[in-house]
Write a structure and sequence with these properties.
433 residues; alpha+beta; 3-stranded antiparallel beta sheet; 8 helices; 9 strands; 55% helix
Length: 433
């Protein structure tokens, strides 16, 4: 079988191809540019040595430069601008002594308007009105509820006497008429006359009693009307007094409100005047600082005057060149040699059991696919689990070892790929006992 390619020669060839590609890309990406204001051109200035870790020169890398040239008109402006800036710089330097004098003198507030603290807040009127209490009640009047002031008996007697005087002639005439008719007391007609006279007298007594009550009630009503009138007058007088006091209170309240409003306006006006005074002081201070800084600003302006119209060009397009993956080349070379070794050893599978038993530390067939009766032992070899197992080709012999598929993720360089083998020497060198 042919030998695998040398990884270093492969990397060298890859580097040469990358270098050629990078140079071509530089030419493609960085065209010379020409504008009315100037031009931008690229050129190769030479070569730069490339060293390895030992200091040996192993190659060369081209070096490029970017050149910008102004048009004659822009170059003339630049030349005049340089002269102008030089003159302005000289003038600024000559004025720097004045700057020293200005900066060594502190700005002061002498002659500025004094600060104003503003007026003191006035004491507002919080109470007003007199202490006269409001009239909340008036004197109660005693009303008559009986007939004590009226002599009802006298009224009844007077009324009955008047009745007797008016009824006596009528009764006598009736009695005379009864006698003329031959009717004496006890007779039926006479008794009827007497009953009528008695009923009339009883009615007169009843009317006199009722009349005496009406007179008593009329006197009582008159008395009570006077009391109610007096109560109403006293109530009206109390209402008038309270109304007058309320008006006095409202007038005092209005005077206090007017006074407080005037005091507030006076305080506001005083504050506004104070603010104007303080603002004036601030403006005076700003004017003083402006006057002091004007010379410094002029010097700074003189030091940075004039601009050149610089042409605008496409940015430099660098060409990247990736380093060859030498590690991958070496790993691929190793795999190729391992595969070649496996192919050379393919005829030795029949003696796997004898050699594996005789040489427990050697590299040997560890592919799980060629094993059976696999029993984990609960410990490891350099991180890979250890087992007892039998080869399918030799079921009578018990072997001790690891599985290649479990070694490969931990120690890839300790396995040979294809039909997997394990380098037990390397594995036990890394095992911690």
């Amino acid at each position: 079988m042919p030998d695998p390619p040398d990884p270093w020669e492969t990397a060298k060839a890859q580097t040469s191809a990358n270098d050629e590609t990078a140079q071509r890309n530089f030419g493609y990406q960085n065209a010379n540019e020409y504008t009315p204001y100037g031009s931008k051109t690229y050129s190769q200035d030479g070569w730069q040595d490339i060293y390895d870790q030992s200091g040996k020169v192993i190659g060369k890398s081209p070096r490029y430069s970017s050149n910008i040239a102004l048009s004659p008109a822009e170059q003339g402006i630049l030349d005049r601008s340089n002269v102008f800036r030089t003159n302005m710089g000289d003038l600024s330097v000559s004025q720097s002594e004045r700057a020293k004098q200005l900066l060594s003198t502190n700005a002061n507030t002498q002659g500025l308007t004094d600060w104003s603290k503003g007026p003191q807040a006035a004491t507002l009127q919080k109470t007003f009105g007199g202490d006269n209490p409001m009239v909340s009640k008036i004197g109660a009047q005693t009303l008559r509820q009986d007939q004590t002031p009226t002599d009802r008996g006298a009224v009844e007697r007077a009324m009955m006497d008047r009745y007797e005087r008016s009824a006596a002639p009528r009764n006598t005439a009736q009695e005379t008429e009864m006698a003329a008719r031959g009717l004496s007391p006890g007779a039926q007609g006479y008794s009827s006359m007497q009953d009528a006279q008695n009923r009339e007298r009883l009615d007169a007594q009843t009317n006199s009693f009722l009349a005496s009550g009406d007179e008593s009630r009329a006197a009582q009503d008159a008395y009570n009307k006077v009391g109610l009138a007096r109560f109403g007058m006293e109530g009206a007088q109390g209402a008038f007094q309270n109304q007058a006091q309320q008006q006095a209170f409202e007038q005092a309240q209005a005077r206090a409100g007017f006074s407080n409003t005037a005091l507030g306006q006076e305080f506001t006006m005083g504050g506004a005047a104070s603010d104007r005074q303080n603002a004036l002081r601030g403006m005076q201070w700003g004017e003083r600082l402006q006057e002091r800084n004007q010379a410094l600003n002029e010097m700074a302006s003189l030091a940075g005057l004039s601009q050149v119209n610089t042409p605008s060009f496409q940015p430099y397009q660098g060409s990247t060149m990736n380093a060859p993956n030498i590690g991958q080349y070496i790993y691929d070379n190793y795999n190729a040699r391992a595969t070649q070794a496996q192919n050379n050893m393919s005829g030795m599978f029949g003696v796997a059991g004898e050699v594996a038993g005789a040489l427990p530390w050697a590299s040997w067939l560890s592919d799980r696919r060629f094993k059976q009766d696999i029993v984990p032992l609960g410990h490891d070899i350099a991180g890979a689990p250890a087992y007892h197992f039998r080869y399918i080709s030799d079921p009578a012999t018990v072997h001790y070892g690891v599985m290649a598929d479990e070694v490969k993720p931990i120690h890839p360089d300790a396995t040979i790929h294809g039909v997997d083998y394990v380098n037990y020497d390397l594995l036990y060198q890394r095992h911690t006992f």
